[in-house]
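[09:14] KT: can someone run the structure on this one? pasting the chain below
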Amino acid sequence: MTNQLVRKLSGFTDLSEAEVAALCHATGRAREIRARHDIIREGDKPGPVFVVLEGWAFRYKILADGNRQIMAFLMPGDCSNLNIGMLDEMDHSVQTACRARVAAIPRAEITALVADHPGIARALSLAQLTDEATLRAWIICMGRRSTLARVAHLLCELYLRARLTGLSDGHGLELPVSQIVLADSLGMTPVHFSRVLRKLRDAKVVTLTRGSLTILDLEGLIDIAGFDQNYLHRVVPGSDGS
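[09:31] RB: done, structure tokens below
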């Protein structure tokens, strides 16, 4: 079975055999976690770094009025914030979106991996910078894009991220999150999200069914979204419509 953390980090830099072995060992104690389970809770004392190996999770915060804002999706190969241990308490929560297999790597082990393996250190740093760039892209979407472009941008990003880590067959991907979850990541109501999604379907660029996203016209989706993949810091072959 492909180790998704190795696959993701190998996309940022060349890893030696020893570095691959070290990553496989560090994630070898993964466990199955049920859907909709908080693996990190806001207010908790920071603990290990969690790595999603199978399934999806998301970062979120609950507002004073009870509404939820999702701030990032964690796909296989993604991990929780590497530097959050510097804080006194967690400032957000992380929840599984579906049944997932997650590895918990103690902070001391992460420190040793970075100190002993320069390739791992470089790849983790680039992954962290990409997470930060993705958050900036989301802020721009929320503040300046139309709702149509906002939905198109999110679907485009998720598809291209899946392409980068081999989770897509080139035509779509498994999308184990509900429309309610997707709407919460865009600051929209589920009803509004459904209406906008219908416009994309009518434009024949995507279809979204329960658990599956199919890309019918990637170039058209990119055009609607005004999508620029530079913030992912890895070029997806063919994602420019060529």
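[09:33] KT: thanks! The two ends are 31 Å apart (CA to CA).
[09:34] RB: yep, looked fine to me
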